[in-house]
Structure formats: C-alpha cells, structure tokens
Design goal:
single chain, alpha+beta, Jelly Rolls, 5 helices, 14 strands, globular
Length: 229
C-alpha cells in the first residue's frame, strides 16, 4: 500500500470516475480474506442475491471490529479521498461535509441512524452475476467505493468481469469493463461524479456490477465507507 501513486489515483478518479490499482493486496492477503468468508462469526449478515432480485450469488457484511487489513484500507482511502469528495460536492452544489478522517465521518453516519458496517465479501460461482446498482444505505453516503478481486481470473474462475456504466445528461450510457487480477482494486464513483459543460457542472450517474461467472469461484472484497441504517 505504501507504493500507491496517490496523485495519479485521485486524478484518474476525478477525471474518469474510476482508477485501477495494481497489486493492492498480496496473494496471501487475498487468500486470508477468502478463508475468512467461511467463518460466520466475522460477519453480521448474509445476503442471497437472487432472493432480492440483485442477481445471483451471495455476500456477507463484516461486523465491527473489522479485520485489520479492511480497517486499514478503509481509513487510508477515506483520508485520501475526502478532499476530492468535498470538491465534488462543491462543484455540484451538494450540501455535504466530509471530515478529514473516517472516525469523524462515521460519527456523522451514526447521528443519522446509520450504525451498521458495510464492508463485505462477495462470492460468485458458475452462473452467478451482479446486476448494475449503487450501494447507498441511508441519507449519508460517501461518493467513492473500493472493490478488490481476491481470486485469479482464468485460473480460479472465468468470466465475472467488473462492470461500470456512466450516464451523462442527454447522452447514451457508456459501459466499460475494468480488468482485475488477484489483488488488484478498482476505486470508483458509487453514485455520481461532476462533469463540466457549457452549462456548468452536472451529475454523471455511475452504476457497477459483475458479469456472469462462466466457471469456478470468484470472491471480491468491497469497501464502502459509509455505514448503513
């Protein structure tokens, strides 16, 4: 994590709405998180996606206290992204304040009744997929999210590509695939980003999902920075 080129990451997110980060986690760290998924005592709930119309597959929300690696990532990325989030709010004339550190931001969430942790691990097997969506859990939402691939594509699974769509005003939707190897991450706008035009800034709406897994098993760590109601 010490080798992250933060200027390049924040610039890419600011200008494109996402940034790919290579080798954020080691193979050992990825495997530890995959193994953790089989220990229900670390999680507060499990969601079967098909039951709710979200797609196919399952995921589990971690409970507090979070595993050290998840807590470290959540705090580190929040601190780096809070100034960008505040800049976006200003450009979009959005009434929001993002404190400099995660603890103070979570206090804002808790004051609004959002107290449940949202980092999660997702598991997909053959035939599973995740429909395009946004992860918003209440009135307070941080505009960025992190997803980390925990298995090796074309070895542990085939298919299961990470998908992003961007809908700008008066334009058709732009869709793209973000290739990820094991340990790679994608940092992305989980709701919207500001785009400039002759009329000033407007909101480009983002959604994300996962294409169908053709075979094998795919795990992903998702780090959401706001807590849930």
């Amino acid at each position: 994590m010490s080798s992250i080129e933060w200027h390049a990451v924040t610039e890419a997110v600011d200008h494109e709405g996402y940034a790919a980060i290579s080798s954020l986690l080691s193979a050992r760290e990825c495997q530890d998180l995959v193994d953790l998924y089989a220990s229900p005592e670390y999680f507060r709930s499990m969601i079967k996606m098909e039951r709710h119309g979200f797609g196919r597959g399952e995921y589990r929300y971690l409970c507090y206290p979070l595993p050290d690696i998840v807590e470290t990532l959540r705090q580190l990325f929040y601190a780096r992204l809070a100034p960008v989030a505040q800049s976006w709010a200003k450009r979009l004339k959005f009434d929001a304040h993002y404190p400099a550190n995660l603890a103070d931001f979570l206090q804002v969430c808790h004051e609004k009744g959002q107290r449940r942790p949202t980092p999660l691990i997702l598991k997909y097997v053959s035939g599973d997929f995740n429909r395009l969506h946004q992860d918003l859990y209440g009135e307070v939402a941080f505009p960025f999210q992190l997803a980390i691939c925990l298995n090796e594509p074309n070895v542990d699974f085939v298919g299961g590509e990470f998908l992003l769509t961007e809908q700008r005003p008066r334009m058709q939707t732009r869709a793209q695939v973000v290739p990820l190897q094991r340990g790679d991450a994608v940092l992305f706008a989980n709701r919207y980003r500001p785009v400039n035009s002759v009329r000033g800034y407007s909101r480009a709406i983002f959604r994300h999902g996962v294409s169908q897994v053709k075979c094998g098993t795919r795990h992903c760590l998702g780090i959401i920075f706001h807590d849930a109601a």
